[in-house]
Amino acid sequence: METALAILIGLFFTVAIYLLLSRSLIRMLLGVAILGNAVNLLIFTIGRVTREVPPIVPNGQYQPLEPIANPLPQALILTAIVIGFSLFAFLLVLTYRAYQELNADNTDTMRVAEPEDSPRPPLSY
Amino acid sequence: MASSAATPKDLPPAMLDVATSIADWVVVWPIVLPMVGAAILLMLRNRTEWQAPFSFAILVATLLANFSLIQTVFTKGTLTMTMGNWLPPFGISFTADSLGALFALVSTVVMIVVLFFVQSEVEDRETKYGYHPLMLILLTGVSGAFLTGDLFNLYVWFEVMLIASFGLMVIGGRKIQLDAAIKYGFINFLATTFFLIGIAYIYGLVGTLNMADIMVKAPLVENGAIASVAALFFLAFAMKAAVFPVNSWLPASYHAPDPAVSALFAGLLTKVGIYGLLRVHLMLIPQSHAQLQIAFMVVAVLTLVLSPLGALAQTNARRALGFLVMGGIGAMLAGLAFGTPYGIAGASLYAVHSMLTMTALYLAVGLVERMGGTSDIRHLGGLYKASSPLSILFLILVFAAAGLPPFLGFWPKLTLLQAGISLTTQKDPLAVYHWWVIGALLLNSLLTSIAGSRLWAHIFWRNGREGKQSEIPNANIKPLDRRGFVWGLLPTMALVGIIVVVGLWPSLYIQAGFESAKSVTIFSPNYITSVFGENSQ
Fold it and tell me: Is B387 exposed, middle or buried (0-12, 13-18, 19+ CB in 10 A)?
């Protein structure tokens, strides 16, 4: 199971990085989304894949009686999903606004902050 | 603080039997106050006239909390508060040691100065869109990152900081801001994702995310695994801190937002990356320092030398300052590369200096832009006549940034050089290479002073604009109006006043730096006992 998941995660990372290397902002956004999912799967797998026993402690006990599924990675993933989703939403809106204002979804033509033919520094002093 | 002895009450052994004493709550006040303040301000967003006074009150309260925290930490040692009544490592801890408390205090000072400065330029519309709450949330994220004792929690604070900085970056909505925010946003989101991957691996290796618990368990992990995790952390924090090969986002974005926002970013954000590097590579997984030392040295030298050269090549004053910020990051990396108590003290002193000086420099350039109408140094000139106090402030800041005595930047540079020179005499295969770092530190001072004084000469000294008109007085200069003088120049002066006074009487400052270095190295058992209680050793 771990091997299969590891291969899947590797595939996710490959796709995400390939998309992030693109010049088109839409592809980069897709890359960011896939990267987030790759990391979530990574956290899930790294918390050890165990039998699906719910981590519930019986009444009157301090510890569960048998091995249980690890609940911590799930809490971490939940947090990471929420954060990743909100940032992704922000980036999506930002990209759309940038497309409207700058008329560009290609990072090569997006040169307002760093003008392409920037002047040479003054020679005095 | 925590006791795991059998409790008379009906509580499981993994739970705290006593509530955290009220005095220890001071650990979370610097985070809770701005967070609650931001929430209230957001609800009051249509009351524009309340925003500034209310944020000022919140920030003063935060500053007092920070003072009380740093005093407690320096006298009693590391302080811990664990949430949710669970014993660490199950509950999330907030652990303030000298390093975190010092950085949190300086961040709040910077934030207060910038809040004053904002009053000189903020428009009603921007206030309505939440300028002040975003500033408070940024401070929440920064303080949270400095004071948390849990690695995953650190990631969450990074994201809090990130989302607030996105908001501040685009508020106003000019084209250049959108352009810059895209570059800034993608690369920083990527950096925090790399950080999250590092967290996932360290959780897989040691089975815990509590920093003190990682310190206990990390030495048991084999070195190869630690090295790969450490490399991931290094990449993530280096992207955050704008270290040489992964730094191009900083000069692409820091000059786009309002000057006050650039000043905040330059002061606070990159330093959080440095804090992460110090925390992870020297304290949490100290064996990674030896593994990565060569890498630290190489990037430190490259950052130190190339950044001021970049500043020399710029015509936009604020972009040039962005390169100077990165030069300072190189100096802090040099301290990390040395890794001795002196080196760490130098790095943390430099971080404090860089927070204050870089913020003040950006504020000064903000005033220059307002008076000269542009940030292009080819079209500026003659500002000395218009405002000689501003020109003096700017020159002091240039000297401070370059590390010339007697200003603030001199002491951290001196400490770093001492650290490096003492390392070269040791029997260490890397001893010779430390000379390269020392040379780069000195070269950085020289180049920074050239780049900075070139800026000064072009903006203030020369009569008019570039070329043949340079003797004709610049006609575009508008003197500062009253609002700009009271809310713009006076706060900048106050910040420069702090820089000069601390530079002239540095004993307390240097002591704080060495205290924070101890908290990262020699006294780190103090960190562990603070979290787990006395009987854990």
Answer: buried
Strand partners of residue B93: B82
- Which residue, chain included where needed, has tokens 């801001």? B177
- CA dist B415 and B451 (Å) reads 23
The model's pLDDT over B198-243, given as tens digits with 9 standing for 90+, comes to 999 999 999 889 988 888 888 888 888 899 999 999 999 999 999 9
Per-10-residue mean pLDDT of chain A, 125 residues long, equals 92 95 92 94 88 79 80 90 92 91 83 80 74
Whether residue A59 lies inside any domain: the answer is: no
Residue A81, domain member (yes or no) = yes
Question: In this complex, do B178 and A119 lie within 8 Å of one another by their Cβ atoms?
Answer: no
Contact B444, B305 (CB under 8 A): yes
State how many domains chain A has.
1
B7-25: buried (b, 16+ CB within 10 Å) or exposed (e) per residue? eeeeeeeebbbeebeeebe
Q: Is the pLDDT of residue B4 over 50?
A: no
Domain assignment of residue A62, yes or no:
no
Q: What is the CATH number of the domain that holds A31?
A: 1.10.287
Q: Choose between B464 and B259: higher pLDDT.
A: B259
Which residues share a beta bridge with B82? B93
How deeply is B230 buried, as exposed, middle or buried, from its count of CB atoms within 10 A (0-12, 13-18, 19+)? buried
Which of residues B189 and B10 earns the better pLDDT score?
B189
Structural tokens at position B36: 């609650």
Contact across the interface for B314 and A121, Cβ inside 8 Å: yes
pLDDT of residue B82: 83
Contacts of B405 (CB under 8 A, 6+ apart): none
- Residue A48, sorted as left (phi over 0), alpha (psi -120 to 50) or beta, turns out to be left
Helices B431-456 and B388-402: angle between axes, nearest 10 degrees: 170
Quick check: helix, strand or coil at residue B524?
helix
User: A-chain residues within 8 Å CB-CB of B200?
Assistant: 39, 42-43, 46, 76
ipTM comes to: 0.94
* A3 and B CB contact within 8 Å: no
A 31-90: CB under 8 A from B: 32, 35-36, 39, 42-43, 46-47, 62, 72-73, 76, 79-80, 83-84, 86-87, 90
H or E element, residue B80: strand B79-82
* Contact residues for B104 (Cβ-Cβ < 8 A; gap 6+): B30, B66, B69, B70, B96, B142, B143, B146, B147
B34-72, pLDDT tens digit by residue? 999 999 999 988 888 888 899 999 999 999 999 999 999
Peptide bond into B89 cis (omega under 30): yes
Angle at B325 between CA B31 and CA B245, to 5 degrees: 105
CB contact under 8 A, A90 and B163: yes
For residue A123, is it within any domain?
Answer: no
Residue given tokens 């040379």 in the structure block: B439
SS3 content of chain A, % helix, strand, coil (to 5): 60, 0, 40
Domain extent for A17: 2-53+69-109
Beta-carbon separation of A124 and B466 below 8 A: yes
Q: Are B301 and B437 in contact (CB under 8 A)?
A: yes
Residue B243 exposed, middle or buried by CB count within 10 Å (0-12, 13-18, 19+) = buried
User: What pTM was computed for the model?
Assistant: 0.93
- Best probe of the B interface among A2, A26, A63, A90, by most B CBs < 10 A, is A90
